[in-house]
Amino acid sequence: MKLSAVAAGIAGLTGSALAQDSVPVTDAETGITFQAFNSADGVSYGIALPVNASAAGGYDIILQVTAPIEIGWAGIAWGGGMVYNPLSIVWPNGESVVASPRMAYGYYQPEIYEDGTLTLLKGSGANATHFKVTVLAQGFSSWTDFDGNVAHLDGSAQVRFAYAYSRTPVDDPASVESTFSIHDSVGRWVHDLAAARSAEFPKWVAENTLPSPPCGRRVVAREERHPVVPRLRDSGRRAGAAARA
Ligand code: HEM
Ligand SMILES: *[C@@H]1O[C@H](CO)[C@@H](O)[C@H](O)[C@H]1NC(C)=O
Ligand SMILES: *[C@@H]1O[C@H](CO)[C@@H](O)[C@H](O)[C@H]1NC(C)=O
Predict the structure, then answer these.
(1) What's residue 214's pLDDT?
(2) CA of 103 to the centre of ligand 2 (A)
(3) Is residue 23 part of a domain?
(4) Where do runs of H (alpha helix) occur along the chain?
(5) Whether residue 244 has pLDDT greater than 60
(6) Could you say which of 41, 160, 228, 230 has the lowest number of CB atoms within 10 Å?
(7) Mutational test site, ligand 1, from 45, 76, 82, max ligand atoms within 8 Å of CB
(8) What range does the domain containing 76 cover?
(9) Is residue 83 within 6 Å of ligand 2 at its C-beta?
(10) Inter-CA distances, 114 with 71, 155, 239, Å
(11) Which protein residue has the closest C-alpha to ligand 1 atom 10?
């Protein structure tokens, strides 16, 4: 496996003194301005944060991943490595998409990350050439690390992330709990999170929140036009999230 460091620092373009690999881009569909990293494989990872996101963690994140339809799954590791940090994995499912919160406890199939919720927002879907996933990510800026300590994503800094993707489709695209096979490629980059912060964050969430699914329908990942994908299990910490709508 190749661990390709992303060397193409574009700090010169942004005027930043430090080498980092993200640029601002506004998504026309949602009106959200993301700080985005475009990987060499054509997968883009856009991040938007609340204006007060800091080293204390605990804040929500809007993540937008756009990928060529040939990609089976793509993911971001919020702590910059595969294991003991939250992962957000996305894949296409027909004309819809699925976003799955995971954590890996070794170099094998990551499990569902019980303390995280990925809620699909407007700006999510798949067509003949690409899939695009826009999610409100809750529980991804603070987590428990390998030593059992609380780790935080410093929303005021330039932060090292890792990505992974595979061209092989996941085993059960309709299920947020689907298993999938190992990556074809992994890489790392430096993301300017300070520049990802905006006072418009609450407005962006409000304007792009999808209607709740009808009562009694628990898992909506299978319903193409109700692309709300809560985590399936209840950790007790986030009771009442979209999973129960
Ligand atoms: C079935 C799923 C997966 C399997 C079997 C798997 C397996 C592995 C293995 C064997 C390595 C090499 C470890 C070494 O070099 O010693 C590795 C590295 C890596 N994997 Fe995975 N992986 C999976 C899913 C993922 C996912 C979903 C992500 C992130 C979104 C990811 C991110 C990485 C990264 C960044 C590395 C580089 C080393 C590190 O950061 O720890 N992997 N993986
Ligand atoms: C950030 O601001 C929001 C909205 O004003 C507030 O709800 C939240 O508690 C603040 N978070 C932190 C970590 O200060
Ligand atoms: C397919 O989706 C991508 C990503 O959202 C978008 O850029 C592209 O314009 C879409 N193509 C068509 C034909 O709508």
Answers:
(1) 62
(2) 26
(3) yes
(4) 11-14, 201-208
(5) no
(6) 160
(7) 82
(8) 6-244
(9) no
(10) 25, 22, 11
(11) 107
For the residues 94-99, what does the mean pLDDT come to? Answer: 98
Please report whether residue 15 resides in a domain: yes
Q: Flag whether 45 is in a domain.
A: yes
Tokens of 233: 């299990």
Terminal-to-terminal C-alpha distance of the chain: 42
Q: Considering only CA atoms, which of 66, 88, 67 is closest in space to residue 79?
A: 88
> Which of 8-17, 98-107, 226-235 has the least mean pLDDT?
226-235
Residue whose structure tokens are 């329908």: 217
Domain containing residue 17: CATH number = 2.60.40.1210
Task: Output the ligand 3 site: residues, CB below 6 A.
Answer: 66, 127, 129-130, 132
Does residue 1 lie within any of the structural domains?
no
* Number of folded domains that form the chain: 1
Distance 230 CA to ligand 1 centre (A): 24
Report residue 19's pLDDT band, with 50, 70 and 90 as the boundaries: confident
